[in-house]
Amino acid sequence: MNRTPVVFIHGAWLHALSWEAWAERFAGRGFLVLTPGWPGEAATARDTRLSPGPLADLDLDALTNHYADIVRSLGVPPVIIGHSVGGLIAQRLVADEAGRAAVAIAPAPINQVPLPRAQVTARTSGGDGADERLVALSPEQFHQALANTVTAEESARLFERYAVPVPRRLLTDLGCDGAARSPLARVDTGNAVRGPLLLISGQEDLLVPDAVTRAVYKEYGDSTAVTDLKQFADRAHSLVVDSGWRFVADYVLGWLDEHGVRPLTETG
Known about the structure:
Elements (H helix, E strand, L loop, with lengths): L1 E2 L1 E5 L10 H9 L3 E3 L10 H6 L9 H13 L6 E5 L1 H11 L5 E5 L11 H7 L10 E2 L3 H8 L5 H11 L3 E2 H6 L23 E6 L7 H10 L7 E6 L12 H14 L5 E2 L3
Parallel strand pairs: 2-3, 2-4, 4-5, 5-8, 8-9
Antiparallel strand pairs: 1-10, 6-7
C-alpha cells in the first residue's frame, strides 16, 4: 500500500503557508501532503513581503509549468487542490490527466468566463510603489476584498501570517486588468476520461464571485466526467484560511472518499 499524494497550490495574495492547517488535517487522515510555494517565494509571508523581488516576473506560464513538473515527478497522479489561480492550474492539470482528482476552490476563471468589472478593478488596485511589477494589498484592502466576512481582528491576523504581493504579469495573464487572458487559462473542459473535479465557491466572495464559479461549472456541461459544485454560504475568498476552513476541508475529504480517492492505494 502507498499513501495517496495530495498537492496543494495556493492562490493570489496568499503564501504557501495558507495550506498549513489543511496539510495537517490531510496528513492526519493518512495522505502524503505537499504544499510547494511559488517560484521565488520566501519561507514565510513576512519574509516575502520584505523581499518580494524574486516573485516579480512570474507569469502564468512559469507558474503552471512549476506545478506540472512537481505533479509529474511523483510517479503517480496525485490529488490536486488549488485556490484562486491555484484552482485554475488544478483544472488544467486534471484535464491533462496529470492528476487523479482535483478540487478548485474559488478558482480564477478559465476559458472565456469573465470576471465582473468591479472585481477586475479590485484585483489590480493597491500597487506596491517600491516595485511596479508587483501588486500588493494593504491590510485594509485585504480585509475589504479577500477576508470580507471575518472580523477586522481576524483579518489582521490572516494578513500578517499569509498575505504576499502578486506579480502584475500574472494578473495580466488572468485578464484582471482587462487585457486578453493568456492561452494558458484555457482548459479542456470536454475531456471525458479525466479524474473527478470539485468546484467550490463562497457565497460572499468578492474576488471570484459565486456566479463566476457557477459559470465555470457550466463550461463542463459537455463532459461526462464527474464534475461537482459546492457553495459555502456566507464565506469569502478567505474560506481556505479563515476560522471556517475546517468545514471546507472536511467537505473535500468526504467528497474524495465518496469518489474512491482514499489515503492508501494498492500498489501494482
